[in-house]
Amino acid sequence: GAVVSQHPSRVICKSGTSVKIECRSLDFQATTMFWYRQFPKQSLMLMATSNEGSKATYEQGVEKDKFLINHASLTLSTLTVTSAHPEDSSFYICSARGRGDTQYFGPGTRLTVL
Amino acid sequence: GQNIDQPTEMTATEGAIVQINCTYQTSGFNGLFWYQQHAGEAPTFLSYNVLDGLEEKGRFSSFLSRSKGYSYLLLKELQMKDSASYLCAVLHNDYKLSFGAGTTVTVRA
Fold it and tell me: Do residue A108 and residue B96 have CB atoms under 8 angstroms apart?
């Protein structure tokens, strides 16, 4: 149990385009979903917290207009990187929390902006 | 704020034991997680400690001392597949996780 999927696993896009990443909890309802970013050889940095039916809360320094988060249902959250630039290239990982404290992570999405 | 420290790298021999320490200074502490992360992959859950003491789960054990702000992950009977990064993460009262920088463990034959 506690499987989280992410799509796509890899994406390459041109600078200035927007990219949408989906995060789904497959076998449980996620009360909260989290979005992280991880640069090479660094740890995970929390970007935002997403609760179903409400606006996401962003960590300090994360631009909410650039990283749009929609938590449409208890099993789906999306992250849209708008007007992507090369500095946005990173490994984006979502996690989902059900009733307990444990966060289960998706497999990650590697974004490369040319 | 929070400060989570763990060693950057550790090397051990196949079949040996390795202990990864994690110290933390944080507000709103609710528990401590250990995750394993292979290169290019997402973290996978290993253990969760809320109360003081040792939690044993097969070859992996995790210990927590809340009063000392200290935890360790113990890996026994090391296998080559255990070569990975091990992340210490503090759970806050708002259910957010703060991660340490990770410890890269290399298992040698």
Answer: no
List pLDDT tens digits, range B71-101.
999 999 999 999 999 999 999 988 899 999 9
- pLDDT for res B1: 47
C-alpha B38/C-alpha A23 separation (Å) is 20
A28, A2 in Cβ contact below 8 A? yes
**Angle, alpha carbons B100-A20-B91 (nearest 5°):** 25
Nearest to B99 among A43, A91, A107 (CB): A43
Question: Closest chain B residue to A4 measured between Cα atoms?
Answer: B42
Contact B78, B18 (CB under 8 A): yes
- Across the A/B interface, how many CB contacts are shorter than 8 Å? 51
